[in-house]
Here is the input.
Amino acid sequence: MPNPISCRLPCVGVLALQGAFREHKWALERLGVQVFLASTLAALRDCEALVIPGGESTTIGRLLNDFNMMEPLRERIRGGMAVFGTCAGMVLLAREIEGSVQPRLGLMEITVRRNAFGRQVDSFEMDLEIPVLGEEPFPGVFIRAPYAVGVGQGVEILCSVQGKGVLLRQGKLLAAAFHPELTGDLRLHRYFISQVAGWNEACKIG
Amino acid sequence: MEKSTWTVKKGLAEMLKGGVIMDVTTPEQAKIAEEAGACAVMALERVPADIRAAGGVARMADPTVILRIMDAVTIPVMAKVRIGHFVEAQVLEALGVDYIDESEVLTPADEQHHIEKHGFKVPFVCGARNLGEALRRIGEGAAMIRTKGEPGTGNVVEAVRHLRLVMGAIRKLQGMPKEELMSEAKEMGAPYELVIQVARTGRLPVVNFAAGGIATPADAAMMMQLGADGNFVGSGIFKSKDPAKRARAIVAATTYYNDPQVLAEVSKDLGEAMPGIEIPMIQQHERMQERGW
Here is the structure.
């Protein structure tokens, strides 16, 4: 937790098993946060907050299982570590994945549909209204994206497309169906660090 | 809502990074690949080793084969078209495949021209043996590159040669003063704007996977250490003794490419790798890497 006297920025890990972890690292670095790529259990233990990037959720889930990281990571998250999952990361956070028994963390009370907008030819860009980020629209990049078809108690829908949740928050968990790391817009990463992980009191982020 | 933008075309390749794309010929193989952790599959009628053995003209796969594989898995499905065969590409776009590989593994349909790829909604991946070839393909609209090896050989030497050439040429550009970039662009036959971009950023403008001849976890990790963003594995998996186990091992090696302990562990008891071919044993005109320009 932040120290109110000497401002110390959090040490954020980006889960680096497969996918676009590099882009998240760059985005967080631009915010001035300490960030490192985490691909081992030891590295995950050093994270104070974690980003789970886009990629293939089946691949990342398989590697979390094969390298015995799934349960220890769940423990860390249950213990209060903030997590921001984008696309595959959102799928891995979800309790339910429609029609799938693939490995997952399963800690967020949402049901997701994978490839919900269709295949790659249906991938799209769209300006999003996200009230918690202010009035200026946010560039939404959706690539074979999921959406939430159901949300449980304690889950806030921060943004919807076609009536389906694409940005959701449950306490210290934040899930986006789109890819803020592929845009130059840092507002969602900043929101994660300051509002979700709770480093807003002591430090002025980015 | 704007579909098929450059950002989403290039973006899908960004999501594949650190992963393994596996050649499959049946829905069953596709499921084995997905279960093993493949980040995408390439739907084919025959793997390159069998294409090489069969000889004759190799074409786009039967749409039925591709559709059955698309139905079997949730990960992205790629499929190959002949170099320059824009109508095969139109067919694959109509089928809704996620990525088109304009590939030298098939017999080229046009010896002069590659497909104009910007005009398609589906993104393209293309092979390259050097930086100039990579930038020409990107100029035509390829949203992903794979450095060419010699497909279907189980011999990684050509993939290593070409990845080193690409990475070496990038390092060379980075060290050049600006006034030398135009003549370098002319020399390598690459679009000037892209040459400037590479010189400035020190990397290709799109994701670059290694391909051709990768048969073991150590091969896969070597390509990553040399700077590849991920690996295509063609014949190497389903031409080996125990495809499921080898597939998982190559996935793990592509993630933990810098950890020799993990590499040693996953390399154990994999059974026989695919049979390999020495490159000089392949006649010049049968070398797939030399197709395209």
Summary: The CA atoms of residues 6 and 202 of chain A lie 8 Å apart. DSSP finds six helices and twelve strands in chain A. Residues 12-196 of chain A form a domain with the Rossmann fold fold (CATH 3.40.50.880). Chain A touches chain B at residues 16-23, 39, 54-56, 58-59, 62-63, 66-67, 87-88, 100, 114-115, 119-126, 141-144, 179, 182 (CB under 8 Å).
